[in-house]
Amino acid sequence: METRAAKRKAIAATVSDIHDQNVKKQRVVLAEISNLPSFDEEPRCVKNPRIKRVAAKKNLSSFDFDFEDENNNKTVGNSSNAKSNTNAKFSDPNNCEPFVEDIYSYLCRMEREGKRRPMFNYIDKVQHDVTPHMRGILVDWLVEVAEEYKLLPDTLFLSTSYIDRFLSQNRVSKPKLQLLGVSSMLIAAKYEEITPPHVEDFVLITDNTYDKAEVVKMEADILKSLSFEMGNPTVKTFLRRFVGIGCEDNKAKKLQFECLCNYLAELSLLEYCCLKFLPSLVAASATFLARYIMWPKLHPWTSTLCKSTGYDVAELKECVLILHDLYLARRGGSFSAIREKYKQHKLKKVALLPSPPQVPNSIFEEE
């Protein structure tokens, strides 16, 4: 017969065994589990811009991936020894070369669809109170709103597109023009931003000129008028591709070149007459003029740009001259928000770059 002391020792030993088993079977934190492949292959990772903004930053550039070429010669990706273009394509997770032309063709077809295009003369045909100058004031103010709430450039371009498309179909009185602007930006922010501002934020930014119910009502009117077609390509959409192509020969100044292209593209939003140009043509013209301003000794339009954009240099002339006038403040000189924005150090102060007073006609001739 066991004594009480012996029973207590047996129970303590059993508890200890159970504890040891639990320790051995302890669950591993997900972050500690290695998900690297057990064989030599390139990981299937595509850096989606939307995910990239919210995902934790991870330095993938330090990983080396081994693969074999067609001749079974082993090479290393993302290393100083991998110099061939073929290897570079394998090592670049952003590379989507097989789809570039198809995507660009699709966007070009989309931008030409009537339901996504504003009337280029809607102020004469539809509006009574709205003038080109009033439209410019509204867009200039929306630039400040976008800066205040740190919105993406895509949101600003979409907002302006919604405004022009709505005004092409609906007559708006002068007191309601600002309401149209904030409601359009509200829709664009919901479409583009991860954390868009609330309705109350847009009410506040108008100094409570309108209440929440008015903004929501105008939002519904815009959506119905545009038949919920909110995803049209803008100048910014095309500019992303053109910037990389236009700066191939001088990558050292790529960031400054990109800022200058964006500056010229945003200036085009102020000009009512730019509505007659397709977004892709405005993007191509901004690329052309940015190259001319930064590298005046080079011809701004190369055969690569011509082939990639689909535009001959002569087709860009009218739009380029308008953008150049905007750059020198010969047009829209009273609108300061975009100009002040691009005088900032973080945007490379591209608004202060000097430019020749005239763009010579000879530059619009084929090389």
Structure overview:
By secondary structure, the protein is mainly α. Among the domains are: 115-225, Cyclin-like (Cyclin A, domain 1); 235-364, Cyclin-like (Cyclin A, domain 1, Orthogonal Bundle). Helices cover 52% and strands 2% of the residues. The chain has 16 helices and 2 strands. It has helices spanning 4-24, 49-54, 85-91, 97-111, 122-125, 132-148, 153-167, 177-192, 199-205, 212-225, 235-246, 254-270, 279-294, 303-309, 317-327, 337-341, and strands at 66-68, 74-76. The protein has a two-stranded antiparallel ribbon. Strand 1 (66-68) and strand 2 (74-76) form a beta hairpin. Helix 8 packs across helix 10 (212-225), helix 11 packs parallel to helix 13 (279-294) and helix 13 (279-294) crosses helix 15. The longest helix is centred in the N-terminal third of the chain and has 21 residues, at 4-24. The N and C termini lie far apart (108 Å). The relative contact order is 0.08.
